[in-house]
Write a structure and sequence with these properties.
Layout: H1 4-9, E1 11-17, E2 20-25, H2 40-57
Antiparallel strand pairs: 1-2
Length: about 90
Amino acid sequence: MKDSFSELCGLELIENRPGYAKARVRINDNHLNSVGVVHGGGVLFTLADFCFGKAANAYGKVALTINCSISLFCEMYHRNSDSRSGGDEQE
C-alpha cells in the first residue's frame, strides 16, 4: 500500500511483520527546524507512527492510531550541520 506522506518524509521500511516494524530516516537539512534541531513532532513522531502503523497493519486488518504521545527528553542535531552533535554517531 502506497504511503505518500512517509515517502515525502524520507522514511524507509527496513523490516516488517505482524506486531513489528523497523524503519529509518536519513536526516538532512529539510528535517531541521529554525534552530538547527531535528523537528521532534514532524520527523521523530512521524517515524514512530509509521512503524506503529506498519506493525499493526501487518496482521491484515486496517488499524489506525486513536491516541498516542511521545515525551522527548533531548534535542537531536544533524551531524552535518554547524550545530553541535547529540546522541551517538552510528547510523
